[in-house]
Amino acid sequence: MPPPFRDEFFIPSAIRDELVEIGVPRSKHTFEGIAGLFPREFNIRALTLSADDLARVLIHLVREKIIPLAQTSGPICVKPVRPGWHACRFYRDLHQLLELVAPYIAEGLRNHEGCLWVVPEVVTPEAACEALADHLANVEAYLATGQLEILSHPNWYLDATGQLKSFEEVATALLEKQDQALAKGYKFLRAAGDTGWVSGTEQSKAFIDYEMKVNEALGATKVAAVCTYRADVTADELIAIVTAHQDARDNALAS
Predict the structure, then answer these.
(1) What is the pLDDT at residue 200?
(2) Strands 77-78 and 253-254
(3) Is 56 helix (H, G, I), strand (E, B) or coil?
(4) CA neighbours within 13 Å on the CB side: how many for 119?
(5) In CATH, which superfamily holds the domain spanning 93-230?
(6) Where are the domains of the chain?
(7) Percent of the chain predicted with pLDDT > 90
(8) Closest listed residue to residue 7, CA positions, set 37, 34, 40, 36
(9) What's the 3-state SS for 87-119?
(10) What's the pLDDT at 253?
């Protein structure tokens, strides 16, 4: 499959005019320029979208006030992890997934937080621990005390038939993990859940509905969560994913 067109030549003039209307100068009408206007934590540059599609996504998200445009020369940054936090990140391959999530989990362990990492089925707990070992020492000790738990996505998200569990089932399990972390004296539960398995499947829409419910519920919990998605999402999927994560919104971002 050839790479998508990523320069301004392939962005229709009408779309370029809309970019200017929302405040994007013509000098940024490239894939790189547009990607740089998203929160850097999203890792938007990993996406396989064309500059045209990414421009359409940005226009929609800015007009709907789901994300703001940066008012400085630097990128918008997601606010620090805290209870109720819900964010999304995109990865191109499993190596990049581990590179993105391991520092996030390591930070939580150092900060005396309970940590739950739900990895893809093809990623072993040993591989996840190796990635963590690049950021902190004695990972096995965190596993032994229960401060860190690593699960495979089928065990967390799917029932015995391979279908997505109900929101209530997953939410109950998450609250149980939260309560266990708090009972052990940890500040809150920091979670990471991989969703790459759902992209492009019949369960995709149901999972986004689940994410919207999670977004509404997290504010009343002592849980912070990041959800990781494969980079081969469509423009419509990208809009839905970003919309379903509250820390993509302007009131949860800091320039």
Answers:
(1) 67
(2) antiparallel
(3) helix
(4) 28
(5) P-loop containing nucleotide triphosphate hydrolases (3.40.50.300)
(6) 8-63, 93-230
(7) 65
(8) 34
(9) EEEEECCHHHHHHHHHHHHHHHHHCCCEEEEEE
(10) 45
